[in-house]
Amino acid sequence: MKQKILIATASFGELDPTILDKLQDSYECVFNQTGRKLTSEELSKLIVDVEGIIAGTEQYSKDILGHAKNLKVISRVGIGIDNIDLDFCQEANIAVLSTKTDLSYSVAELVITQILSFYRNIPSHHKDFKENLWKRKMGETINGKTLGIIGLGKIGKRLVEITSGFNFELLACDLCKDEDFAKKYSIEYCDMDYLCSNAEIISIHANSKNSDKHLISSDQISLMNTKTLLINTSRGNNVDELALLEALKNNAIAGACLDVFKSEPYKGEFTSLENVILTPHIGGYTSNVRKDLETEALENLRKSL
Q1: What is the pTM of this model?
Q2: 214 an active-site residue?
Q3: Does residue 80 register a pLDDT over 80?
Q4: Are the beta carbons of 305 and 52 closer than 8 angstroms?
Q5: Mean pLDDT for the chain?
Q6: Which of 76, 158, 235, 290 is catalytic?
Q7: For residues 65 and 297, what is the distance between their CA atoms, to the nearest angstrom?
Q8: Residues 6+ apart with CB under 8 A from 224
Q9: E strand or H helix at 87, and its extent?
Q10: Taking the alpha carbons of 6, 9, 11, 17 in that order, is the dihedral positive or negative?
């Protein structure tokens, strides 16, 4: 009798269908057929009798995991495991594994794309062109601007490295300070308030361990000015979406580039604003990286089971 597993990520195997064949050869598979991230209610029903999960960014809280009677392993497609209640898993003897595939280039390259697209008005120019309109909107060069990075881990550092030619003034906020790296790239470590008050571009690359608390709330947004661009490619819950929406509507900040949202797929009011660039959680969604992530997640699951 085959062990039963849940493939919770809706896009798993899209690039390489042979990986699904391998799974189905070895396991009885339950699939996420919604085409989106599972809700808590949906996940609670699907995990009742599975022994393993190939997991995405859906939330695995104590309440949800309490429905799992046979669960032995959660194999995460990605690096972060802040969406999983690790204390409960330890008590319940559930192994939690994440992938080591390097996402840093993929995410950092998206951030650069967002920055350049925003300051050169690429989305609006493209839209006008598609409507046979020849309109030129004045852009800005980004050379010499102040970039503030919240979370100077692997992705944040990669962003620093590959933007070195833009001559950014660099600020960083992180609980763990890498003084050697900061010295090499002339980075000034500072607290959150200073960063939000002084950075022209703010890029978030931090985990979201506390689901009830935003890294960027109305307090931090109020410190920003009309020239601030806020970028979030980390976790949707890191930003208070209502506070950000209000600031964007009132032009209290210059704009935002958002790749992650509290609820996905996102269908809210950000879509009606002109001063935002929205993407559907594609930070690590490049073909070479995705294939490696899925292969590694499968091997982690297989070894653990």
Answers
A1: 0.88
A2: no
A3: yes
A4: yes
A5: 95
A6: 235
A7: 20
A8: 196, 197, 202, 230, 247, 252, 253
A9: helix 86-91
A10: negative
Among 42, 109, 246, 264, the active-site one is 264
Angle ∠(282,285,289) on CA atoms, nearest 5: 155
- Domains annotated for the chain, with CATH where assigned, are 3-101+286-304 (3.40.50.720), 104-278 (3.40.50.720)
Place of tokens 């209502």: 242
> Is residue 219 within 8 Å of residue 191, measured between CB atoms?
no
Catalytic hit among 158, 281, 290, 296: 281
Q: What percent of the chain lies above the pLDDT cut of 70?
A: 99
Nearest to 277 by CA among 54, 111, 45: 111
Q: Residues with Cβ < 8 Å from 25, sequence gap 6 or more?
A: none
Residue 76 among the catalytic residues: no
Question: According to DSSP H, which parts of 149-272 are helical?
Answer: 154-162, 179-184, 192-198, 218-223, 241-249
Site of tokens 């996420």: 32
Please tell me the distance from the alpha carbon of residue 266 to that of residue 289, in angstroms, as a whole number.
24
Torsion of CA 86, 90, 91, 95, to 10 degrees: 110
Contact 240, 219 (CB under 8 A): no
87-115, pLDDT tens digit by residue?
999 999 999 999 998 999 999 999 999 99
In the numeric block, which tokens belong to residue 284?
């690590």
Evaluate whether 224 touches 253 at the Cβ level (below 8 Å). yes
User: Residue 155 in contact with residue 108, Cβ under 8 Å?
Assistant: yes
Residues 114/277, Cβ–Cβ less than 8 Å: yes
Three-point CA angle 268, 273, 276, nearest 5°: 95
Question: 193 is written with which tokens?
Answer: 């308030």
**Predicted local confidence at residue 22, as pLDDT:** 86
Is 302 catalytic? The answer is no
Answer for the pair 96, 81: CB distance below 8 angstroms, yes or no.
Answer: yes
